Amino acid sequence: MTITQVNFELINNDLTQLNKNLKKMVSAKHPILYAAAKHLFNAGGKRIRPSIVLLISKLTIDSTCTESILPEHKRLAEITEIIHTASLVHDDVIDDCETRRGIDTVHNKFNTKIAVLAGDFLFAQSSWYLANLNNIEVVKTISKVITDFAEGEVRQGLIHFDYTISIDNYIEKSFYKTASLIAAACQGAAMLNQCDKITQTQVYLYGKHLGLAFQIIDDILDIVSSSKTLGKPAGLDLKNGNLTASLFFALEEKKTLYQLIDREFQYSDDINKAITVIKNTHGIQKAKDLAEEHIQISQYIIHQLNQNEATKNLLLINNYIINRLY
């Protein structure tokens, strides 16, 4: 299943407008900086995060009120995508990734300095638009995400090629890397609808568990997919020492992987060897089972909330995320 097969009739018009607005929002005075930012959004992307924000906005609308979401909800969806894109620019520099979404990364097309500045610029733009929502609680919630990104990158940098960390450590890193933004954005959408604290917590946990599942599946795809499918080099996480769930589970069966990790995949065929070994274990299936657990938790939470047209669409996103492997 691809994201284009998920029927988003409920928010299609909003997503169309979002794509137009993103390019307007990243306008910069310096032509190179503008070109770098525009290059990112021209590449498209799945727009999973803003879709979730818009759907949570519709899900948490009081049934006694209008069913039209606020302009602030649409702006929050845009802010979420800008923050996500900014983090990708910096990730690509750190990981020295040559392509993203099937096109040259910013630092590959321009240079590292421009890429760092472009990422900083996008974070700054998101902060500006966030402040203009004029909702201090939402500002606090979303601002924490940028701190989480930084903490996640530092933690990841400290555990490169470290196979002694636990699955819990891996899940914590995945939260900082992906789930934090989705969870906070869901909570922010509920805040804008003036939902009670219980509902805010529920949608936050929905986003957290959905985000964890997304990252676990993303890490599996790094091993099982081709570069063409991924839009970036396959095996990049392994190469950079970012050890993921599939590898940790595979290590329980194949001790030969320790030798490859110890020498940091320094030989040209080490990554291919590691991928082959992992595929010949139950590592990938166990990682998928772990993602499935988080998907089931997120689905349970959604069923506890108001049931409306948005519910069906959110469950379709759940199905899309867990079925990205097929």
How are the elements arranged and paired?
Layout: H1 12-25, H2 31-42, H3 48-59, H4 71-95, E1 99-100, E2 103-104, H5 106-109, H6 112-131, H7 136-158, H8 167-192, H9 197-224, H10 227-230, H11 236-239, H12 245-251, H13 256-262, H14 270-279, H15 283-304, H16 309-322
Helix pairs in contact: 1-4, 2-6, 3-4, 3-8, 3-16, 4-6, 4-7, 4-8, 6-7, 7-8, 8-9, 9-15, 12-15, 15-16
Family: Belongs to the FPP/GGPP synthase family.
GO molecular function, one term: metal ion binding
Organism: Campylaephora sungminbooi
Description:
- This protein has 326 residues and is mainly alpha-helical.
- The chain has one domain (3-322): Farnesyl Diphosphate Synthase.
- It has helices spanning 12-25, 31-42, 48-59, 71-95, 106-109, 112-131, 136-158, 167-192, 197-224, 227-230, 236-239, 245-251, 256-262, 270-279, 283-304, 309-322, and strands at residues 99-100, 103-104.
- It has a two-stranded antiparallel sheet with strand order 1-2.
- Helix 2 packs across helix 6, helix 6 packs antiparallel against helix 7 and helix 9 (197-224) packs antiparallel against helix 15 (283-304).
- The chain is globular and about 55 Å long.
